[in-house]
Amino acid sequence: MIHSLSLSDVLADHARSRPQVTAVVDGAVRLTYPELDARVTRLAAALRARGVAKGDRVLWLGQNAHAVLELLLACSRLGAVFCPANWRQSADELRFVVDDLSPAAVAYEPSDVTQALRQEGWVQAGEEYESLVATGQEQEFPQVDDAEPVLALYTAAFDGRPNAALLSSAALVAHATSLLVVRQMEPVFTFLNNGPLFHVGTMMFCLATLQIGGTNVFTPAFDPEEVCRLIDAERVTQAFLFGGMIDAVAKANESGKYDLSSLRFVAHSAAWDGMITVDDSPWCRSKMGGYGQTEVGGMLTFLGLAEGGAGFAGRPSPLVQVRILAPDGTEVPAGETGEICARGKTLFSGYFARPDLNAEKSKNGWHHTGDLGRREPDGTITFIGPRLRMIKSGAENVYPAEVERVLKSHPAVADAAVIGVPDETWHQTVKAIVALKPAEKASEADLIDHVRTLLAAYKKPRHITFVDSIPKRGFTPDYDALDEAHGGGNYPGA
Amino acid sequence: MIHSLSLSDVLADHARSRPQVTAVVDGAVRLTYPELDARVTRLAAALRARGVAKGDRVLWLGQNAHAVLELLLACSRLGAVFCPANWRQSADELRFVVDDLSPAAVAYEPSDVTQALRQEGWVQAGEEYESLVATGQEQEFPQVDDAEPVLALYTAAFDGRPNAALLSSAALVAHATSLLVVRQMEPVFTFLNNGPLFHVGTMMFCLATLQIGGTNVFTPAFDPEEVCRLIDAERVTQAFLFGGMIDAVAKANESGKYDLSSLRFVAHSAAWDGMITVDDSPWCRSKMGGYGQTEVGGMLTFLGLAEGGAGFAGRPSPLVQVRILAPDGTEVPAGETGEICARGKTLFSGYFARPDLNAEKSKNGWHHTGDLGRREPDGTITFIGPRLRMIKSGAENVYPAEVERVLKSHPAVADAAVIGVPDETWHQTVKAIVALKPAEKASEADLIDHVRTLLAAYKKPRHITFVDSIPKRGFTPDYDALDEAHGGGNYPGA
C-alpha cells in the first residue's frame, strides 16, 4: 500500500514535519502536532483495548471539541469509522442513530438527551475521556488502506430515515486538497471550528486545515462575541461564517474591541470589510458559492472556478467528473435539465448498511446526487433543486423542482409545489399547488403563461390550485400529503 | 470504479465544463477542450485499430509538440502506456529504449537518429500523424482504472542501464493537484512548454495546467527570443525557466520589444522583475526549491511549504509521507542522515520490466529514493546527495555523499570522492580521494580535522589521497574506477 495516505498518515507526517506547530486549540488545551499524534496513538490503543476493531463504529454525542478530531484520527489509525452525531436531535432521533450504527464505543457530553440514552461503557467527555486516553499505551499500528471508510455523517432522509454517508480517508484527503486549491490555503492557516462538526461544511475545512498542517481552534457552537475573542487571540485565518452570522460577528465587534484583521475572508459589508482582510482566493472572491453534498465529500463544484460563467454552481472540482444525466443514464445536452451525477476522488463509499439504496445511487458507475442541474452553454453548472420525484407526461420527464422554481420566480407567488395527476392519455399531467403572497393577485392563466414563457410547453401545469400554505417536510414540500389532498399519483417507478 | 479519475476523464470533463477554453497552442494549431477531446478519441481509436491494447507501450521520438499531450491522453483513454523518449540521446541509447519497451506504436520526428532506427509502421510526425488521427472513428471507450500506469519516463541508470518509471493517472492527477496548491494555479493559466517533455519537470506543469483547465503552449525546445514572442502573443502565465534561462530571456527582451507582463513568475534580477509580474505563491516565493525525482511524480517536498525552516528541501507535499530511514528500515532521529523514503498518492508504480529493482526500491512498504537526507529540528528536510553505496565501519553506516559534501565545503577542495577500504578490525575504513583547487593548499590532517568538526568521528576519512581530478560517470564519481585505483572494497551487500 505504497500509494495509501490515511488521515492517520497525514497526522504522522505532520508530527515529523511540523514538530513546533500548534495543531489544536480548545479552551485551555493546546497541542502541537507531535502531542496530538501521541494522544491519538494512546486513544487508538485504548479503544482497541476496549474491543474496537477494524470497521467498527465509534460515536460522538456532543458539541464541537478537539475530542472530535482526536476520535476521527484514532479511528483512522485503527481502521474504524467515526461518527459525530447531530447533538441537536431529539432522544428518539439519536436513538435511531445508536441503533443504526450499533457503535463499539460512544463518547458523550452530558445533556438531557444523552442522559436518557446513556448505556453502560459510554465515556463521558472531560475527565472520563482523559482517563481513557491516559490508559492507552504507545504502540505501532499496521497501515490502514486509505480506501477504507473512516467518517460517517448522517444525511437527508430518503425513504423517511436518515442515512450515514461513509467517507474514506482517500476521499477526505482528496476533498481537503481541492479546498487547498480553491481556498489557496497555506501552512500558516488557523481555522475556527464554530460551525457544527457533524456537518460536512465545517468538517471539510477542519480537515483541509489538518491537511496543510495548520491550526484548528474549536469552540462548542456559534457565539458572535466568543468568535471575535478567538479570532483576536488565536490570529484566526478563517471561520465558518456566512450571511447573517457575519452580520452578527460584525455587530459584536461594533466597538472595535477585537482585532479581526488576521481573518482573510469574504467581502460582505462595509463594516465587516473594514475589520478583516478581504481575501482574493477563488473561494473568497466567489463568496463561497458552489454545489455540494455530504456524499461527494463536501463540494462537487466551485463558483470560484467559474471565471464569470452563467451557472451559479460554477465548475467541477479538479478531482471529479460531473455529468448531467437523464433517467435512462444518457447524457442530456447543454441547456437541458437532468440529474447531477459524479465520479471521482472525493466521492463517498456508500451509506452504512443500505445495500439497496447504494445500488440505486451508484447505478451505471455514476453517483446520482438526487439533485437536478443544467449545463450552461459556457460549461458551468446551474443547480435547480432536489429531484425527489419525477412526473411522466407523454414521453417527457417533468421534474417538480424545476417547475416550482419558475413558479416561485413570479412576483405574486409565495410558495409552490408541483405534483403529477393520473391521466389516461398522458400517463400523468402536471398540477401546481400555489400559495400567493398576502397582498398579491395572479390568476391560474397568468401563472401557466409565466411557466410557458420560461420552460418547454410540456412542463407547464394544466391546473393550478391555490392554497394558503404548502405543507412541508423539512425544507421540501410534503408531496405525499399534497398527492392525497390534490389527487396526485401514477408516478413512474412508484 | 466510481472513485477513478484518469487523465482521459479529466479531459472529458473539461470538454463539457470548458467548451470555449483553448487547451492547446502549437504553431498554427489551436484546439479548444472539445476539439482536443475529439482528436484524442479519434487517435485512441486509430491506435486501437492498429493493435494497441491495454498495457501496450506507445513511444514518441521527437521534440515538444501537442502530439505529446495527445498521445498521452489517447493512451489514457486506451489503458496503454505512453513514453516520450529523450530525443537528444544517441542512436544506441534510443535503440535500448525501443528494445526495452517493445512499443506497439511509435511516432517520430525525422532526424539522423530516428532515420537510423526507423522500423516499418512507425508514424512520422506531421502529415502521417494527422492522417492517423483522421482515420479514427468517434466511439465510446470503457472506463480505465486510474491506478493503471499511463506514462513512462526514463530515469537514472542504476546498474548501468536506464529504467522507465511508470506513473499512473492517479499519481499524475495527485501530483498535478499538489502543484495547483503550491503554485496557486487558477483556471485562467497558460503554461509554455519550452523545457523537454521527456523530463518530469516540464511534464508535471503541462499536466497541472491540464488539471485546472488552462492552456498548454508548445514550442520544440528552448529559444529565448521565441519564448519572448510566445509569452507576449499567448499571454503566458508560466514557462519552464530558471537561472541562466531567465537571464537569456531577459537579455533577448532587452529592448522591451515584447510584453512579458502576463508572466506571473519568480523574482530573479532587476531587469527580469521589471518585465514580468512577480508572483507571491509559495512556489514562486521559494524560487521553485524542493526535492523531487521522477519516481515520486515530480516533487516530493516543497521549499514553498517550509515557512522559513532550515532544510533546503522544504516540507513534504500534502499528498505524501516522508521518512528518513536507516538501512535496516528503522527511522533515524532528527539531525541524522538516512535515506529519503516516501509513501503516498503521487508515487510511481515501479519500473517497467524490472521486478528485482522494484522489490528493492519498495522494501518494507516505502519507496526508497536512493537519496540521502536529514530531518532538521524544525521538521524541514535537507537533501544531502545520492546514496549510491554505503560504507560499513564498525557497526556504523557511512554514506560517501555526506562526507564528500563536507569535504567540498572546505575552501581548498575542488572535488572529492569517498570510498571504503577493507579492514580486518572495522570491516571497512573511510578513504577520501581529493582534488584541490589549483592555487590552494591543504594537508591530509587539515581535511580530516575539517570533517571531524562537522560530522561524527566515525565518518572522518582515515586516509586522504590527492589527485588532479575525480573520474566521473555522469554527475557522480566513478566509484568502480576509484575502488580499483585506490584499494576500495568489502562493501556491505556487495
From TrEMBL, chains A, B:
GO terms for biological process: fatty acid metabolic process. InterPro entries: AMP-bd_C, AMP-bd_C_sf, AMP-dep_synth/lig_dom, ANL_N_sf. SUPFAM superfamilies: Acetyl-CoA synthetase-like. CDD domains: PtmA. It holds the Pfam family AMP-binding. Keywords: Ligase. Coiled coil: none annotated. Residues 12-352 form the AMP-dependent synthetase/ligase domain. One of its GO terms (molecular function) is medium-chain fatty acid-CoA ligase activity. Residues 402-472 form the AMP-binding enzyme C-terminal domain. Belongs to the ATP-dependent AMP-binding enzyme family. PANTHER family: ACYL-COA SYNTHETASE (PTHR43201), MEDIUM-CHAIN ACYL-COA LIGASE ACSF2, MITOCHONDRIAL (PTHR43201:SF5). This is Long-chain acyl-CoA synthetase. It comes from Nonomuraea solani.
